[in-house]
Design goal:
By secondary structure, the chain is mainly β. Helix content is 0%, strand content 39%. It has strands at residues 9-14, 37-43, 47-48, 54-55, 64-67, 73-77, 80-86, 90-93. A hairpin with a 5-residue loop joins β3 and β4.
Length: 95
């Protein structure tokens, strides 16, 4: 796949949610919420300040992240369902 986000944008693939709840109840597909965890597939070059300096992003390709429920824009790239979001939509990096 040849796709690189611009500036402070990040391309993320959602991680699948568990089929069972912590109590062992099997959750049907219709009742599942969209997972808010993902893996960073690609990152942009960073944010540009007014004086032209580029500040690199804190996340990098391969990071497992947590993001807001309604963050980003869903796109299909190379047959994969992905999300493009700004780095500011990312809540944190997981372990």
């Amino acid at each position: 796949m040849k796709f690189r986000p611009l500036h402070d944008r990040v391309l993320v693939k959602r991680l699948d949610e568990d089929e069972k709840s912590p109590g062992g109840i099997i959750i049907p597909d219709t009742a599942k919420e969209k997972p808010s965890e993902g893996k960073v597939v690609a990152v942009g070059s960073g944010t540009k300040s007014e004086d032209g300096k580029v500040t690199a992003l804190d996340v990098k390709k391969g990071d497992k992240i947590l993001f807001g429920k309604w963050s980003g824009t869903e796109v299909t790239v190379g047959g994969d369902d992905l999300i493009i979001m700004k780095e500011s939509d990312i809540l944190g990096i997981i372990g």
